Amino acid sequence: MDDRRVHLRVPYGAWVEDETEGGLTFYLARNLSLGGILLQANVDPPAVGHKVRLRLVVENESRIMSVQGEVVRHSGMDGEFAVRFVNLDNARLSFLRELVQEAKAS
Predict the structure, then answer these.
(1) How does strand 51-58 pair with strand 36-40?
(2) Which candidate among 7, 31, 67, 89 keeps its CA 20 to 30 Å from the CA of 39?
(3) What pLDDT does residue 52 have?
(4) Domain ranges of the chain
(5) CA geometry: angle 26, 14, 101, nearest 5 deg
(6) Taking 70 as the threshold, does the pLDDT of residue 3 lie above it?
(7) By the 8 A CB rule, do 92 and 67 touch?
């Protein structure tokens, strides 16, 4: 099996907001890494190549961070799709590191 993943994935079962021009769309996260996130859509997932702006909300909205990403694949299972994070600055990368560590510890 060819596994090209660079980053450790951890289970992450939180709701994630996609800030689109038409408003907010909510997705359920399945797992998270420093490189991206696996999400599940209740309806058709965004097309591969679609740009997203995700809001990761943790600890009852005590910490919120927006990250940009691009849909890189559909898993073909239950509306799941993968997003690769793009344009991560140091603050966003640090936030994601903390989030991954917290998810790994729980």
Answers:
(1) unpaired
(2) 89
(3) 95
(4) 12-105
(5) 140
(6) no
(7) yes
Separation of alpha carbons 70 and 50, rounded Å: 6
CATH 2.40.10.220 fits 12-105, yes or no: yes
Q: What is the pLDDT of residues 25-67, one digit of tens each?
A: 999 999 999 999 999 999 889 999 999 999 987 766 678 899 9
- pLDDT in the model for residue 61: 64
pLDDT at 48: 96
* HEC string for the chain: CCCCCCCCCEECCCEEEEEECCEEEEEEEEEECCCEEEEECCCCCCCCCCEEEEEEEECCCCEEEEEEEEEEEECCCCCEEEEEEECCCHHHHHHHHHHHHHHHHC
The encoded tokens of residue 47 equal 């097309």
Nearest to 34 by CA among 81, 79, 101: 101
**What's the predicted TM-score (pTM) here?**
0.88
